[in-house]
Amino acid sequence: MRARQNGASMREMMGRVGDNSLLHTMIMEAFQDPRFSTEPMQNRWVLRFSNNYYLQCMQQAEARR
User: Fold this and answer.
1) What angle do CA 47, 24, 31 make, to 5 degrees?
2) Distance separating alpha carbons of residues 5 and 49, to the nearest angstrom
3) What is the largest CA-CA distance in the chain?
4) DSSP code of residue 36
5) 7 exposed, middle or buried (CB, 10 Å; 0-12, 13-18, 19+)?
6) Domain locations along the chain
7) What is the DSSP letter of 1?
8) What is the pTM of this model?
9) Contact in structure between 46 and 1 (CB atoms under 8 Å)
């Protein structure tokens, strides 16, 4: 999401991650969100995005217990 907010292209980002399907999914989700012009809003959206993925990981870990 940080690269997305900084203006990186989706094609460039996909090229960097190779065949990693999880990262492909994350990139596609990042590009479904808006790109903001102010740094505070970019930071807020990056934090929201990363917290969402962290929450999903924690929920899956809990479900495996």
Assistant:
1) 55
2) 11
3) 42
4) P
5) exposed
6) 2-63
7) -
8) 0.84
9) yes
